[in-house]
Amino acid sequence: MSDNLPVDSVRAAVANLLLGKDDGDLSISIDFGTSYSSVSWIKGTTLDIKDIGDIAGWASAHSVGPYSSVPEVPSEWMYRNGVKKYGYEVHHILSRPGHEEWHRLTNIKMLLDSSADSYEIRRQNLETIKRINETRADHEKIGIYDIIVDYLFFLLSRTKAQLSKKNIRGKSHYTPGDPVKFVLSIPEKWDAVAKWTMEKALATVTEILQFGSTADLFMLSESESASTYMLERLRSAWSSKSETIITVDAGGGTTDVATFSVINDKPLRFRRVGISQAHSIGSSFLDHRFREYLEDRVKEQTHLNEVENGSTLVELIDAAVIYFHRQMKRYFQGDLEEEVQYVDFNGLAACKEKGFARGRVVVTQSDLAKIFDPVCDAIWEMVEDQILSAQKSRHVPSKMLLVGGLGLSIYLQKFIEVRLASRYPDIELVPIGELPEASLATVVSRGSLFRSLNKEVGPTRINNTGFGISQNQIFRPDFEGHQGGDPFIDEVDHETYVTCIYYLCKPEKDIRSETHKMWETLLPGQNFDVRIPIYMGDGYCVDDYHIDHQKNATAQQLGELSFKTTFDEIKQNATPGSFKKKNGYYLVTYDVIIQMHGLRMEYGMRFPSGPKGKLRAKGELQNIAAAFNLGAA
């Protein structure tokens, strides 16, 4: 989330690691950020937010200064000839000649984002993955899911190693076999597929590492996580239980703006006011805009296309962007018009007219303002929409919390302060820098972890997705849901059918159990063999649309019911209503049942149909936290 951190923040994290309590289960929270990621942890069920610790020391041995022990790590990944590098190791390679030989993925979280705003970043990363696969001709191809798993493995293997170390009392916070619970912070805008992919990847990694379980995974929005931490630590910043607060979580790749009303003091709980907004705009977009700015500045310096001091033009630009990312972006203020900044660029000849010093590009304040302003304008537009929406619903915002990696930008803080002062003077901006401790990088991971420790007074769990089954329906050519499908003729009754999805569980409902009656055609003496795919759907979840219809575009198969037996067994166990003779064949009726048990879903096939039938096949989905509303117990 942030770039530079005071060393004092690291000392606090190290102290937590050394002196943390040993009683109770271990809980771990992951903030998988676009630019940076962090991991926070706590042992036991203490309700003191100050007891939460962070995993620190992500930087590799060659890093110096504050980067050697910060509690955050770049969400970046590199590959070359079977060798992988992560986080600060990527930045180290980028600062040295010859890094064009590596394949770099940056902002990898945005591979899960499906918005148009992030298309260009996704396209670049997907092209990189394609080039990687071209170098792996004799190996299995890698995809988006593999990258997410790989990065999470990097995060959790380091986490497991640190928590397994013995502290000054000779005890470790984790020993093999100890129960571990996990918490995930999720962007407000993610669809069910992105959430599901993340949950599945985390389950895969915990199984590989033999490190806890995701059976009780708790998921919370990043904006509520940040609000929880800031308001819990800054209780003097708000005065009443009914206060309305706007949270601006300006992160690396996305900005979430949400309005909350405080509905409970202890434990701290919020009710969302209106509809939150989320756009793919954030700190990483400033990096991309600065890159484009540099490329335009040096495009006529054709001699730099040759290797200069061991670095190519692309490598020089990469190193300059890293410098902007670390040293310029957060501290730019924009109020000193005559001040300039210098970016190293080896081989560049001095030219005052072009704004070049020897070996350096001169960057003016106005140039930086042009890079920042479109991003700040987009964020302000979201902010103002939330203010006006809240006012229309008779909620008057009194505070605005600015958090996230980009929330640390002095320029953005001033940008919002000026506009609030001129248009909404009664709203007070509370920037992330107001926190009483320097835990700037772990606000989200700490907030979600603290929220998970006490789930009382939380929202009722309801489905955000649908769960459905494959069903062959008699083809109706005039029905929109069947048009464009792939009809087929059944060999038994010679009717024309099309395969559709029927959703037993619909979104926005609190569902415990659902039963749906199905039927199959069967010739005399023919074995009974049925296979029923189980689907998770997002969005429409409209019944009776064929499997390839656009309204089922997000449907994913998660499991399958299968049952095979003989004709005689079906006949012997049938009831009159479940086994009917008809025109030389039999109609066999059975039930498909779905039952919810916490974060686990059981599904089964019952024959004969009805409450007295016997369960003939069953299955379960164990990791379905992504299917429910965020923050529900």
Q: Which SSEs are present, and which pair or pack?
A:
Layout (H helix, E strand, L loop, with lengths): L6 H13 L6 E6 L4 E8 L9 E2 L18 E2 L2 E4 L2 E4 L1 H7 L8 E3 L13 H16 L9 H21 L15 E7 L5 H18 L8 E4 H12 L10 E7 L4 E10 L4 E4 L4 E3 L3 H16 L14 H16 L11 E5 L11 E2 L2 E5 H28 L4 E7 L6 H14 L4 E4 L11 H11 L12 E9 L13 E2 L6 E10 L7 E10 L5 E10 L7 E2 L9 E10 L1 H7 L5 E4 L2 E13 L2 E8 L6 E8 L12
Parallel strand pairs: 1-8, 8-9, 10-17, 17-18
Antiparallel strand pairs: 1-2, 2-3, 2-4, 5-6, 5-7, 10-11, 11-12, 11-13, 14-16, 15-16, 19-21, 19-23, 20-21, 21-24, 22-27, 23-25, 26-27, 27-28, 28-29
Helix pairs in contact: 4-5, 6-11, 7-8, 7-9
Protein name: Heat shock 70 kDa protein 12A
Organism: Lachnellula hyalina
InterPro entries: ATPase_NBD (IPR043129)
